[in-house]
Amino acid sequence: MSTVKITGIGGRQISVQTGLFINNEFVPAQDNATVKTENPFNGKVLAHVSAAQASDVDKAVAAAEKAFNGTWKSTQPTVRRDLMNRLADLIERDNEELASLESVDAGILFRESSGMFVPQAVETLRYYAGWADKVDGQSLHIPQGISYSRRVPIGVCAAIVPWNAPLMITMWKLAAALATGNVLIIKTPEASPLYGQKLGQLIVEAGFPPGVVSILCGLGTVAGSALSAHPAIRKLSFTGSPGVGRQILAASAKTNLKKISLELGGKGPSIVFDDADFENALQWTAAGITVNNGQICAAGSRIYVHADIYDKFVKAFSERTKDSVAGDPLLQETTKGPVINAGQKKRVMEYIKIGQDEKVKVLHGADDSKLPTEGHFVPNTAFVDVDPQATVIREEIFGPVACIAKFSSEEEVVRLANDSCYGLGSAVFTKDINKAIRVSEELESGQVTINMWGLLTQMCLLVVSKRVDSVVIVARRLSTIGHRRNTSA
Fold it and tell me: Annotated catalytic residue: which of 157, 217, 297, 403?
């Protein structure tokens, strides 16, 4: 297979192979099918990566079945643990290369990838490696004797990964599968597949047996559909849009009723009470909608601020977020990289236009004329005094577009926050611990963070979740089915 060199941070040359990763080898797709991946900063072609067809999925499944039924399912948990820790060490060693690939392939700021997404991938692997030799069943004395349960591997699993934080989300799926003795076929996103090509090299270096992990780039309508409908795949985990989630559920229902985990859209509310630490709330609400250009399913895109501090907050939020240094995401001075592609830019700008057409007041942004014309840049935008029925506050935009509204009471803000078809993540800012817990329990959201946004850092004061056995990400409504990053994953 061919190898391409990608220029990363500081001019470093990163070599990646372009084939499908099956049986610990890089091989061409059927009929040499490929997809083109481009740098969203300048539109230049980075590589032509093999695009898996249905027959290639069959080959990956066959390799996975052979690995699972051969030795992997009976491999000692301590061996799986050591392999996972070795992979974590290698990812940590190659942080700069992996972060560079995410920057040039997905437009993610290098400092965000190297400082947050890659370390989170390492942390996830090490967390699940620690569970590999601790998964057990239960026993119960009954009149007839003793009844007991065992936890056994499912077998061949599949994961379909999105383009917005691909390495980190891959590890959320891969680590749980490996720790419990399963084998996994990963479909990397066609818009940002290069991290997966590098990951395949590290899988081999870590010492995993052939077939335990397969990595296939490919179109969702081809490779994704083949994985969803394949009768030998026992479980599939998908992160992406609700529409595609429905298609995957339908494919499972029509074939082998494989287990399905879905992590779908979000329209996360952040609630800022008048007794909140003002600077802390400002810092996290700004980050919650600008990190990765708001291209995060749990982005804090709805911001509800108490009436007593509303005007002060709106002014400070605008000062904090309206200006940015748009440019090459590899450069340290850049604070705004491009969105993933022209289609995503068009989507975000169309939503901004819808907000303007609906007479929603623009605080700042909405105009991309001052941004670089080369590349796919969109402006940080904030709407204020947003009506609860406005399109921009109800639909997921997946871009750096904040909607700010005021509230006067706990009851009112809980009602506003819950007035959504989504239920992925939310945040509450207050110094009153009783209020924090009271409101968090009323929010119809799988994840509630207190005095911070998201769970990608250790800086939280308190994390409240709908489960308490670990740091859990679950969700409600249209946002998800299943669990991730916990013992139930």
Answer: 297
